[in-house]
Amino acid sequence: MKALITTSMAAALALSVAIPAQAEISKRTIRIANGVAEDHPVGDGVEAMKACVNERTGGAWTINAFWSSSLGDDLQSAQSLRSGTLEMVVSSTSPLVAIEPALGVFDLPFLISNEAEADALLDGEFGKFMSDKMPSHNLVNLSFWENGFRNLSNSLRPVEDLEDFSGMRVRVMQNNIFLDTFKTLGANATPMAFGEVFTALETGAIDAQENPYVTIDTSRFYEVQDYVSNTRHAYTPFMILFSKPIFDTYSEEEQQILYDCTAAGQTVQRESGRSLSEQSLQRIKDAGLEVNDISDEAMAEIREAVAGVYERGADSIGADVIERVQAELATIRGQ
Ligand code: TK8
């Protein structure tokens, strides 16, 4: 009897010794949904992430990215993650207010003023506070990447002051804060999924849309727009979301690989976006679009006009969340 126990214990020990470190990593296929085109900086981030995953898993994982809303728009994809039928999405936070209304905090007009502030906010305490809200919706936020500062494009006229927004049919993301902002500016705001924007601009169903230069460039909106105005009215983050039901089946080591490799992708994606932005602007100009800045005076008037969005947004976002972000930004700005 004693010998038997010893033998089986020895066998167990031999087995545990024989298991290589890699045993915690299973063969897996991860699909990533995306609304943007493959040549958007997100493409560079995904490539960096793939290289990292390949190295860490010894090639055990296959990552397939699907571009230009081919697996559905941001919100649909996030819903698929929640039900465990899709692994991953690179999604703007804005359309996800239908799932977590507090995410609307990022859409408050002129909240973030530059990229250094965005990075400090998203990679710091506040970003963690927002990410912590996601597991209750069956989602895991692995990292914040950059969509960026949004600028208005349209087919009617250069937008140089508040009056120029008047009556303009602007597509906004499916988001109450953006809707309020553009209505307050006097525009005729229509919520629409990203994948429908190009055709809506092309057919003239809408006059205008707003997105960072890299998106106006890579989604070829310049083909169906004539004016771009440097409004920088909001900064949108991308969340790198993973399906929690699927995440929960991963080993701890595998979960760590997801965090580490989306962080590696973040560095590359942000750098690529920031250097591409200038090139995109040049391509937009080369395509014959008229690009204009807005005077400080006109900008002050525009900011003043939308100031009430903060108070009205508190109902859905939560006054505590708005206070928290403002306190955090004050700290970041050294105020
Ligand atoms: C792409 C979107 C896009 C966003 C929008 O799926 O909807 O305008 O800016 O980048 O997330």
UniProtKB/TrEMBL annotation:
Alphabetic keyword roster: Periplasm, Signal, Transport
Main location: periplasm
UniProt key word Acetylation: no
Family membership noted in the UniProt record: Belongs to the bacterial solute-binding protein 7 family.
Record keyword Transport present: yes
Compartment(s) where it occurs, according to its Swiss-Prot or TrEMBL record: Periplasm
Gene Ontology cellular component annotations, sorted alphabetically: outer membrane-bounded periplasmic space
Protein name: TRAP dicarboxylate transporter, DctP subunit
